What we know:
The complex is a heterodimer of chains A (103) and B (361).
Chain A: E1 2-8, H1 15-29, E2 33-40, E3 43-45, H2 50-55, E4 58-63, E5 78-81, H3 83-88, H4 90-102
Chain B: H1 2-35, H2 49-62, H3 64-77, H4 82-95, H5 98-119, H6 129-167, H7 171-185, H8 192-206, H9 211-236, H10 244-258, H11 266-270, H12 273-293, H13 314-335
Helix pairs in contact in B: 1-2, 1-3, 3-4, 3-5, 4-5, 4-6, 5-6, 7-9, 7-12, 8-9, 9-10, 9-12, 9-13, 12-13
Amino acid sequence: MNIVVVAACTSGIAHTYIAKEKLIRAAESLGHTIHVETQGTIGTEDELSMEQIKLADVAIFAIDIAITGTERFKGKKVITVPTNVCVKSPKQLIQKIEEELNK
Amino acid sequence: MKSFVGELKRHALTAISYMLPLVVASGLLIAIGNLMGGQVISDLDALTIPSALTSLGVFGMGLLPSFIAGYISYSIADRPGIAPGFLMGQIASFLGAGFLGGMIGGYIVGYVALGIKKYLKVPKWAQALMPMMIIPTLASIIAGLIMYFVVGTPIVWATDGLTNFITGLDQSSKVLYGFVIGALGCIDFGGPISKVPNLICDGLLMEGILEPEAIKVLAAMVPPLGITFSLVLSKIINKRIYTKTEVENIKVAFPMGLCMISEGVIPIAMNDLLRTVICTATGCGVTGAVSFSLGVGSPVPSGGIFVIPAMTAPVAAVIALLAGTAVTGFMLVFIKKRKTDADDIEIEEVEEQLDLSGIKF
């Protein structure tokens, strides 16, 4: 699977980046390709390219707050979860998504 | 219903995320200015550098209701919500309904703007005017009138009621409430639960009640400082309770903790969540109880140890902080399991079972 993620938490300094690390580690160990954009207090980092979004099978919004740039994902399968789901159970989340997509 | 509550919370959290840098910068400006002898000035002739800093900080604090309202509204209705949201914040300031008024105003105007965006159909030539003119103006008129004539007075009552309640507490209830505010305020290390009591503290600060804010500032430092203290203790009594990776994380968490950012302890706490949270929450509670009963107040909502000199009773503040840190430290050393070299090898992370069935695309 090709996965793109936007992560953003309330204070934008910790959960955002923990979620990012966890998702990347989980996705890679399951053999998926993943790109993660973070919208922290510092601003947007690792911004997703249109190419990456176009190629993605699914987009995960790991967010506790409103994010910018959602219009880029028009027509994409998008799943929105709080950051703590990605922190606690990144693998289960990805496996669950895979199941749903294969249905 | 549950998802609606979740939505309301997400809007509030969005606003807080935009507000935090403003609060920190303004708070520190006031603290630095006050420490150098500055005060709020209205006459340019009296301008000194310290007074300039203090005044600017107070201006920043005055923006808070607008920030809250503006960004709650933004979170609900996107960009057309920002301008009317800021206006509702101004009404809240004017009514003396401060923070609570800003929040309520933000919700009202946000949903009004969203409703207009969704249901008001305009001819094609007017569509370009929608985000620029029609939504902001119409939303401001509707929500503004509601704020002035309907909800304004009850909000002022509620704010006054809360203010009177807190100022009227006797010594023993201060210990209790101090403990609760402290413990809740850092139970998830700066996460969404702790934002709620912290928000109330910020609101009370704007009403001129400084004590809860001191609890917030002091208690937020307890988890990282307590964990650091437990590391030191564990070395002294030769009981190893942290892995090498965790020790590295503590070295990062400590300086962050001094600046009142408790998030640094999350990676450490995650490995042993229940035990760690029990210890840190108790420590935070103790700090809160001591701080409240000794009457420490903080005019600054953020900044960690650097704002302690600006508090109303700096020595008592340090005592409260040390008490909580000691409690957390001793408890951790006592109840955490001993670690061996084998624990240093990264073990497959055990994931919590989660119900993901509610997730939809």
